[in-house]
Amino acid sequence: MYREDIFYADKNFVHYTTNLNGGDKEGFENFSDRFRRLFPGYHLDSTMHIRANKETKTLNLKELMKLFLSKDEALWTQHKWVFDGERRYLDGARNISNKVGF
Question: Which of 19, 80, 83, 91 has the most crowded Cβ, counting Cβ within 10 A?
Fold first, then answer.
């Protein structure tokens, strides 16, 4: 029901409400608002999988593996953005080995 935005919950999911009218409702969010706040630059597809927006940088698993195995300083400098502290998701390219990076 929460994913359908039927109700609002507080930060700790202790208190719930179906509307934000009256009372002390500060900090209450529905699922969509919370998702947009926690995951800027991403959206949910029709199967509720997280997908990157077109303008959001993503990682290619093969390129990331090449980077980790490389000793080329220029390659590391070129990919500095990968380590800027922002959350990154894979680009959705097919992964033949079925290994998943978290």
Answer: 91
